[in-house]
Amino acid sequence: MGDGVAPRLAIEGLTRRFDGRAVVDGVSMAIEAGQVSCLLGPSGCGKSTTLRLIAGVDWPDAGRIHVDGQPVVDGAARVPPERRGIGLMFQDFALFPHLTVADNVAFGLPRRDPGTAARVRDLLDRVGMTHHAAAYPHQLSGGEQQRVALARALAPRPRILLMDEPFSGLDDRLRDDIRDETLAVLKAEGTAVLLVTHDPAEAMRMADEILLMREGRIVQRGAPYTIYNNPVDLQAAAFFSDLNVIRGRVQGALTQTPFGPFLAPGVPDGTEVDIAIRPQHLAIDFDRAGRGPLPTASHGDAARGIVERARFIGAVSLVELRMEHDGSLLKAAVPSVFLPRPGTPLWVMFRRDRCFVFPRGQAARPQDPQNQSRAA
């Protein structure tokens, strides 16, 4: 930081191998006090192992970990877990079944400290569980248990809180409310948070910064808006949403497609590329479908497809079309209700300003913030 204050958590070159394979491979990151960072990636990419290394329940083969500028893992320095000032919160909550809600929250605090009872009351009030202080975990719902687990994790005032898929056991309708409530409490406490999840929506909702992990490495990092709108490669784009992909070959910084030419600046001639577009940015030419005005010229040329299936899924209708020019299947997300019958011909176009052009088969290099996708 410019003011000389060390990050709350700093990791450099963290590596862990099992049977000769690097499960965590040179991971580096920095998290400030009050910041929520999200380690996002598919199952098996090394997220939880990274958390275990930071917590001290496993030891790295290489790398350094500093908390507030002080080494906890650095060469010969290996601070035990209980002295790191790091809290843990897991998906199973791990509440003690024989203790009341209040006693669960107080666990780990000094019993005779006059401030313990006040701290417990304050946290229970923050998470809306004051009236359940005398209840036992089995008497609570999943959402209530999650609130208690959060209060217990925050009770000792950890400098850093590690959260491993903490909301995965909750049903969808409850999950969003609990996420928002949890985020409000974490921000009020000013704790540095590292959240591990495989759910892109959860990362987008909660994180100040997302670190996208793949095969043990960080391949992209940034604010949710940035990482969603500037994916570093095709895999990164596909991790956040469904994609339509059109293939082409670059000639003179342009790729010719049935939807018209697409810019590919800086890509050498002859390079095969994938042009990716999300379903919500695939436009149907409703003028030719007899349902309204023609989209603007920014959508480029139209190509014809035949409807294979259309489903209403809430706020949008998902229309799947088999394209006549190459037989590919494209998906369009259309606002409101639009359910053409199978076999209906429709003309579709791309939102050019929302397309991404990637050299085919080229994956991002780890931890290279300059390696950005090229938007058409």
Automatic annotation (TrEMBL):
Any one Gene Ontology BP term:
quaternary ammonium group transport
> An example Gene Ontology cellular component term from the record?
ATP-binding cassette (ABC) transporter complex
Q: Which InterPro entries match?
A: AAA+_ATPase, ABC_SmlMolc_Importer, ABC_transporter-like_ATP-bd, ABC_transporter-like_CS, ABC_transpr_FbpC, Mo/tungstate-bd_C_term_dom, P-loop_NTPase, Transp-assoc_OB_typ2
Domain ABC transporter: from-to ranges: 9-240
Whether ATP-binding counts among this entry's keywords is: yes
**EC number from the UniProt entry:** 3.6.3.30
Pfam families registered for this protein in UniProt? ABC_tran, TOBE_2
Record's CDD domains? ABC_Carb_Solutes_like
Which keywords appear in this protein's UniProt record, sorted alphabetically? ATP-binding, Cell membrane, Hydrolase, Ion transport, Iron, Iron transport, Membrane, Nucleotide-binding, Transport
Which SMART domains does the UniProt record give? AAA (SM00382)
Please indicate if the UniProt record lists Transferase as a keyword: no
Q: From the Swiss-Prot or TrEMBL record, give the protein name.
A: ABC-type spermidine/putrescine transport system, ATPase component
Per the UniProt record, the source organism is: Rubellimicrobium thermophilum DSM 16684
